[in-house]
Target: Transaldolase
Amino acid sequence: MKDLNVEVFADGADIEQMKSAYNNKEVDGFTTNPSLMAKAGIKDYKQFAEDAVKAIPDASISFEVFADDMDTMRKEAEILMNYGKNVFVKIPVVNTKGESLIPLIKELSAENVQLNVTAVYTIEQVKEIVDAVKEGVPTYVSVFAGRIADTGVDPMPLMREAVDVCHSKEGVKLLWASCRELYNVIQADEIGCDIITCPGDVVKKLPNIGRDINELSVNTVKGFAKDIQSSGLAIL
Model:
């Protein structure tokens, strides 16, 4: 991990897991989204945000707006940004109707709001975002590389180009979203991606980076032997 330049963020909404990851210095920051909050059983968004920032006062945390229209999104953004200086407001690049939210992104960035622009899938969207945001205002461009790969398309050419586009303006960082496996962390690091968000199961595997793979055969068979013993199954 110490040899990686890419920052690793934990993607989730379990406040206890977030606290543990922060206190144990397992990751560099945190991201949340409505789906993860629903899965974690969050009942009070404002209380969750307040508790998260209180427990994690100096690491980046992204909170997403819930509305689907720009006027209401703006009002939500004003609430979320005030929870702490480490908060990034997540705004999707489009709404459910496919309408571009670039005007809102431009407006908020001009007011020095730290943004995490999410649900990005194309290089055209990346370019529009980078053009819209204010120079020097911290901004994340979250490209869903994992979901792109889920369609059978190699996301690497897009991610490499996105690195160059994002780094053309001060303050903009490229974030590899929808990480699927630990190797994605290595891929993100090799192309110069700034941040990768990882789900809890991938975060747990981070200590495996740099591990000697020659040990894996014996360890794998030991695992089989343990499972055989506990299963009570037999051939003879």
Observations:
- The first strand starts at residue 7 and ends at 11.
- The two ends are 46 Å apart (CA to CA).
